[in-house]
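Technical appendix A lists one of the benchmark inputs used to test multi-chain prediction within the project. The record comprises two sequence entries:
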Amino acid sequence: MAGTGHAHLRPIEDVLLRVEDLVVEFPVGRTGLSVHAVSGISLDVLPGETLGIVGESGCGKSTTGRAIMQLPPPTSGSVIFQGQQLTTLDPAAMRAARTQMQIIFQDPISSLNPRRKVREIVAEPLAVWKRGTKAEREARVDRLLEEVGIDPRRAAESQPHQFSGGQCQRISIARALVLDPTLIICDEPVSALDVSVQAQVLNLLEDITAERGLTMIFIAHDLAVVKSISDRVAVMYLGKLCEVAAADALYSAPAHPYTSVLLESIPVPDPTVAAVQSPIEGEPPSPVLPPPGCRFHPRCPVASERCRTEEPQMRQIGADHFVACHHPDLTASVAE
Amino acid sequence: MSGRSPQAVQRDIKEPLLRVDNLSTHFSTRRGRVRAVDGVSLTLERGRALGLVGESGSGKTILSRSIMGLLPTHGVKRGGTVDFQDTTISGLKRKQMRSIWGSEMAMIFQDPMTSLNPLMRIGAQITEPLRIHLGLGRDAARETAIRLLNDVRIPEAERRMCQYPHELSGGMRQRVMIAIAISCGPTLLLADEPTTALDVTVQAQILNLLGEQRRERNMSLILVTHDLGVVAGHTDEVAVMYGGQIVERAPTKTLFANVRMPYTEALLQSIPKISAPSHTRLSVIGGRPPDLVNPPAGCRFAPRCAYAQQRCLDEAPPLTSDGDSSHVFACWYPVGSPTAAVATAGRA
């Protein structure tokens, strides 16, 4: 699971964003140790594409999303967005670049300022960047609020706590869209919502990205949610990439043992399907002292001696299907 | 101490272990009376697992706490009765409930970090109920605790006994919670979203563990969850809650094969399916859950229901069945019935 390597990257001329060998480490107190949150990940996104990133908690998926935004800047590696190397930009240029990339967080209520009126929250980025006249700005905010299904008049006189969780997430989406970004990073945008509301927000994101040709990175732990919205999906484990593939290919023919385990672990709302027999034991190890070789080997059902010492490289096994594993399951992907 | 008597174990299994009759729990707030649980009746037999499913605010957690008698007395208006093992426990004082909690009925909560005492070692937290309820001595309690930790598959049980909750992972903490809950051999276990805070691979392990312990100990389980996938594989029966009421109840297989209540149908359809191709449009339930201070006069789901007719808005439907008495639903025009077909055709 090592997931170093660049086999899955596409030509730099074609992509909107390319992340190469991204490393993010955080010190652990004064111990001299560090948390290896992300350990050499490479990713890219085509304009208009939705890339899903899935993994369990602590796998580094949120850290990856934030490191792309330079929040905080990564320990090493490069992030090239619209041809610009973000890691070396000066603060003023970075500020300007951030208008083109917006992030939507998991908890819709705490990511909105509780003391301000909702309409002001959505309008603020426009005022900061002095886009258009006051009337133009107001018209734009109203149009956006209506587009995400929030009544602008109510938004003008209400604070975030007067809206439900789903509505607050719609407000966050409006705020992210107000500067007309090209890339949106969604970090678990629907995991705090009930299923019926989750479906509303997912449909809204789907419509908005389709209408505007927006590029999206969608980070979530729920495999079904990620599949429903993504064109391409990357699976992460303990700071590394396991598998990258077109959404349908990944789910119909998982090649990495970890991807299969994840898929088998999902409880299916159908009692005629036999209950999941815990496909693996144990929990992910600590990212402070990650295992050598393939990071998944201590829990992997097919691990061999080679997996304990040698880190597998990303390699191609299908049209748009890449895996970092010494013993991938190729039975399904050959037929692909 | 009040250990479970051997007769209790040998009781006739046909007799329901738990009978909840017309239970209601209303909270007094500044806005008025919130009808969090409003007239819920259910029975649960010994050794069976009941899934209680609903979205946030549907009353599933309040119902489970009302059954346990875990709600504050101040500002809470209760109605109805809870009978547990031939005793009416709904009117009991807190002091009397203490002999039932832990030894007869136990509960597992969603967040294993906040429900364990952060200042007590794991060992002390498991041996405490053993010593209080079962009257075990120090060494016997310690031995039992280690056996329990082995039962819930915690490796190196003896070393874990000396650790604090923060030294364990989320999955391990939830295993400890299960060990504590089953330590005194309760006959009823209430698990309130036991795997919601856990990763999907760990969730599968914990759910299997719960099922295994339930079968081994012949416990009844009430599994409270928002996840229809979780109840599908791990319960015998399912009750779907909406707006403080049970709107459909059936054996799990029957429910999923033959959904009658439009809310259950809509809920199932709004879940993204792993089998569907990517970018499949999700069906949504429009609108919002009812305000439980002023619930709708008729069916509480009617304002959001795709099949709603005038009668649904005026008159609240009772829980009824057609033919199969184990499958009840609260709907005037249940999915797949001739009346529904006529009603929706008339509108279209």
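The longest strand of chain A covers residues 34-45. Chain A touches chain B through 48 residues (CB under 8 Å). Comparable benchmark entries are summarised in Table A2.
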